[in-house]
Every structure is written in C-alpha cells, then in structure tokens.
Amino acid sequence: MKFKKIYAPIARSLMLGLLSLSLVGCAIDFGALTGANASRETSAAQATAEVRQALAPSGVLRVGVYLGSPTSWVKDPKSGESVGIALDLGKELAKRLNVPVQVVEFDRLALVLDSLKDGKIDFTFTNATAVRAKDMDFTVPLVRLELGYLVLGDSKLQSVTEIDKLGVRVGVSQGSSSQGVLTQLYKNAKVVPADSLAKAKNMLETKQIDAFATNKGILFEMSDTLKASQVLEGRWGLENLAIAIPKGRDAGREFVQSFANNMGQSGLLNKVIVRSGLRGTAKD
C-alpha cells in the first residue's frame, strides 16, 4: 500500500480532527490510509535490503525528536529516563529494520520537520496535516490529541470561548500548525510566536503572553512545572498524529504502514502512550 493524499473527509471523527485545517481551506482524508490492504505480517517479517535502504539510507535510522512533548521526547522527572512516542516508535522500527538508531534532538518541532523534509532525518511522529503532506508522507493517524490553552492561575481567561478578544496575546510555537491555524482563526486576539517551549513558558510566566496554545500533551507537561497554571477545559481543535517519513522513500512505505498497523493492533502503541505519560487524548 502507498501513502496517499486525498481531499475529502469520510468520517465524523476524522472531520473533528481536521476542523482546524478546514478553517484554512485544506484537509486530508485518511480513509485511504486505513491499512486495510497493507500486509499485517510485518511484525515478525524481516525487512528486505530494498526496504532497509529506503528507510535508513545511511545505514542508521535517524529519528527526529524535540524536548517537551510526550508525543516526541520528554525526560521522566524522577528517573531522568528519556521517553516519548516518536522516540520509542523510532527505536522499535529500527529493531525491525535491523539497523542502529540515531536519536537527533532539536529545540522545536519546526526544525524536526525541516530536517525530515530535507532528508536529514528518516523518521518522526507528528500532526498529519494537508500542508505537511506536501513535503512528507504519513501513515494512518495513530493518536488523536486535543488542542487547548495554558493560562496562569490568576488569569481572567477561564474558557476557550474567551480567548479571541482584543488585547489577548496567545503564544504559539514558531512554525507550528497551531500558528498557521490560529492566525487565520482569530478575529481579535494576537498570535505571538515563541522559538522554543522553554521560551513560551518564560513568556507566560512573565506575562508577555496571556495564554499558550498547542496540543494538551505539551500543555500538561508545561503546567507541571509552571506554578499556579492550568490547562483550560474544552478544546479548539484536534491533532491527528502519525508516523512521518521523507518523500521519495517509496520502497519503504508499505513496511512503515504495516508497522503502524501492527503497533496499534498488538497493543504496543498503548504501552508506548502510557510510558510517555501522554495526557489530553480525545475521548470522542
């Protein structure tokens, strides 16, 4: 099976996940990526030399991560152990390819995506959007994650419906899908880019911004270390997170899709999610 881009949502649940994208006039229909026609035997199968060359052309699977998101890479505050969905999935795929893994660390997601687009890394796990699908190939989405806001405890903003007002400054990660969507969505609030999650936390703490917007997995991590802060109830959208590989890796696409299918069907994905400490997954 080949990864595809098509342009009409086929299910209500995926339509909800793509709400924010529809606001800027584009969406991906993931119906063709269900993996129904992909092999489900990959878990035990050895990758062919052609597949290995396609997915790890340097002889090493280079996995791109950024610090601060359980969907990518975080450090357990007690043990100091590195965990994260991109990190763990990348390590598992490397085992099945029978190649070494190289974890490549970045300051923010935009730099991960730029490196994937340029073929400087081979693998990551991120929000699958129509815009990004022009530059990389995605598997079927594996995790649905709510998008929300983090505010300080003394903030007057207590609902997601109160954000889009004159004078309200909303931080976003520079180059993120949140930046693109909210810039189009807001009629009154101002979008303020931050070049790292650490910078965004400082901007919120020093009241340079009134709220920070991204997926709730990141927001809860930030809130844990930001005194008297809270993640607001409700959501302004959903992310559909999937494995991403560079364009041009055609010979490896079916193997990666089958790997994604197997991770979900075997229960290994749930174990990875629990291990990462991810919070904020969509319940509907």
What's the short version?
This protein has 10 helices and 12 strands. By secondary structure, it is an alpha/beta fold.
Structural class estimated from helices and strands: alpha/beta
User: How many strands, which pairing sense, and closed or not: the largest β-sheet?
Assistant: 8 strands, mixed
Q: In percent, how helical is the residue content?
A: 25-40%
Strand content: 15-25%
Distance between the termini: 28 Å
Pattern of helices and strands: HHHEEEHEHEEEEHEHEHEEHH
What is the count of β-strands?
12
Number of separate helices: 10
Sequence stretches where pLDDT stays below 50 over 5 or more residues: 1-44
Cα-atom Rg, whole angstroms? 19 Å
Average pLDDT, all residues: 86
Query: What global shape is seen?
Result: elongated
Structure explained in plain terms:
By secondary structure, the protein is α/β, with parallel strands linked by helices. The protein has ten helices and twelve strands. Strand 8, helix 6 (177-185) and strand 9 (190-194) form a beta-alpha-beta unit. Helix 3 packs across helix 9 (250-266). The protein starts with 11 loop residues before the first helix and ends in an 8-residue tail after the last helix.
